[in-house]
Amino acid sequence: MKTACRSKIDGDEIQKISIKFFEQLPKKGKPVKKNERQQEYTVLATILMEDKSFADCELKVIALGTGTRCLGSKQLSDSGTIINDSHAEIICKRAFQKYLYAELKKYFFKKESSILNFNVEKGIWCLKDEIKFHFFVSQAFCGDASMSFLKEKKVLLNENVEEKESFNFFDEKEMENPFKRQKLLLNFSENLIRGRNDIEKLGFCRTKPGRIDSDPTNSMSCTDKVLKWSTLGLNGSMLSNVYG
């Protein structure tokens, strides 16, 4: 789906385009309303491409994912044939990577791409200057990004919440010492928080949330994963060798 966009795109516009695109998809797999008390729900994530090469600009959804499920550690596949993390953000990222592979294939076989230029000096493909991507998610990421909201919700429900100041796990002064830094990093797994436990604590790595009696998952929270993507990119390890 393509639509005209303003010179400066705002979040509301991205949201409207994403939801409209989702609503136009077939009903299969979408949440349904069973009765007045039972309403299924899901999380929607999209990646939209902004193309400034057109006079009126162009904005379109190129990747989409929905979902809230994640496999427990006992369900993992040794052969890697099962998707462990099916949260919307992760599915959307996978779809985006598939899109990048398709663009590479077009370049190899047709010597053309709507988003890529080949940098001869560096030997890698780069995005055209007029191309920009936007990432939309219909609710806060699981993990640290949603902890403050969950804490406020517990307070409104009069549930017991221990008040503590937010803090970062890595102390800046200790991290300056290379020996202490190595020790902190080696012990980092001991400071991993499961799901929504200890919601008053921020700055910790967390696993995906789940029922307290469920099989714990090994998948990191979407907050942690998106933070990694914002630093290393969405293209993944294989595509990082060809995309700049």
TrEMBL record:
<keyword id="KW-0378">Hydrolase</keyword>
<dbReference type="GO" id="GO:0003723">
    <property type="term" value="F:RNA binding"/>
</dbReference>
<dbReference type="GO" id="GO:0043829">
    <property type="term" value="F:tRNA-specific adenosine-37 deaminase activity"/>
</dbReference>
<keyword id="KW-0819">tRNA processing</keyword>
<protein>
    <recommendedName>
        <fullName>tRNA-specific adenosine deaminase 1</fullName>
        <ecNumber>3.5.4.34</ecNumber>
    </recommendedName>
</protein>
<comment type="similarity">
    <text>Belongs to the ADAT1 family.</text>
</comment>
<keyword id="KW-0862">Zinc</keyword>
<dbReference type="InterPro" id="IPR002466">
    <property type="entry name" value="A_deamin"/>
</dbReference>
<keyword id="KW-0479">Metal-binding</keyword>
<dbReference type="Pfam" id="PF02137">
    <property type="entry name" value="A_deamin"/>
</dbReference>
<dbReference type="GO" id="GO:0008033">
    <property type="term" value="P:tRNA processing"/>
</dbReference>
<dbReference type="GO" id="GO:0046872">
    <property type="term" value="F:metal ion binding"/>
</dbReference>
<comment type="function">
    <text>Specifically deaminates adenosine-37 to inosine in tRNA-Ala.</text>
</comment>
<feature type="domain" description="A to I editase">
    <location>
        <begin position="63"/>
        <end position="244"/>
    </location>
</feature>
